[in-house]
Automatic annotation (TrEMBL):
<keyword id="KW-0378">Hydrolase</keyword>
<dbReference type="Pfam" id="PF12697">
    <property type="entry name" value="Abhydrolase_6"/>
</dbReference>
<dbReference type="GO" id="GO:0016787">
    <property type="term" value="F:hydrolase activity"/>
</dbReference>
<dbReference type="InterPro" id="IPR029058">
    <property type="entry name" value="AB_hydrolase_fold"/>
</dbReference>
<feature type="domain" description="AB hydrolase-1">
    <location>
        <begin position="8"/>
        <end position="220"/>
    </location>
</feature>
<dbReference type="InterPro" id="IPR000073">
    <property type="entry name" value="AB_hydrolase_1"/>
</dbReference>
<protein>
    <submittedName>
        <fullName>Alpha/beta hydrolase</fullName>
    </submittedName>
</protein>
<dbReference type="InterPro" id="IPR052897">
    <property type="entry name" value="Sec-Metab_Biosynth_Hydrolase"/>
</dbReference>
Amino acid sequence: MNAVPATVVLVHGGFVDGSGWRAVYDLLAREGHQVRVVQNPTSSLTGDVAAVRWVLDRLDGPVVLVGHSYGGAVITEAGTDERVAALVYVTAFVPDRGESVNTLIADPPPGAPVPPILPPRDGFLALDREKFAAAFAADLPPEQAAFLADSQVPWGVDALAGVITEPAWRSKPSWYLMATDDHMIPPPAQQAMAERAGSTVSEVTGSHSIYVSRPDAVTALIHEAAQAITVAAH
């Protein structure tokens, strides 16, 4: 019996939208993967999980569910869907049951850079545009980093407060891409979360925008996950 090739579903994080996945999308499509990009609103965890499930409902499975940054919290909650066969975290949060992004960032490692998040306005957060490039996109060309800074999507405080009910990584295999020069989620925190989840870890030099700057590395890890679940299905 021929195994059904996995569909890859990409979930973005806070302050950005799904267009940042374009290079990863192109590489995966070139390798023959079906790919979907979720445009999650990042207003609340509940709403973002619903956006993922809206996409999953149109697929047969199996699915490799990929999340960047806050998208890791989204796929942790949404990934319990029966169609999801594997999780890939890209410099992402990996909360456990009862945790939220807020609880994960409450006690940063000593000496860790502090993301330049401005005080909330009308229930939403933004990054200081003058400090955006250094914090979020230090390895992108200045023009590209400036565009990301000036096209920020407001990130809802309710999204950061959203609590995980049943973490998908407790029942699904996971992979984690660590970015060694990440100034948004400190590498030691990335490593600790990946180890706790039992993820297969790949480490790459790059910023928090590794999914934009190193689409080859991101695609390679997604492809590894897709191959692993295809082999397991035989």
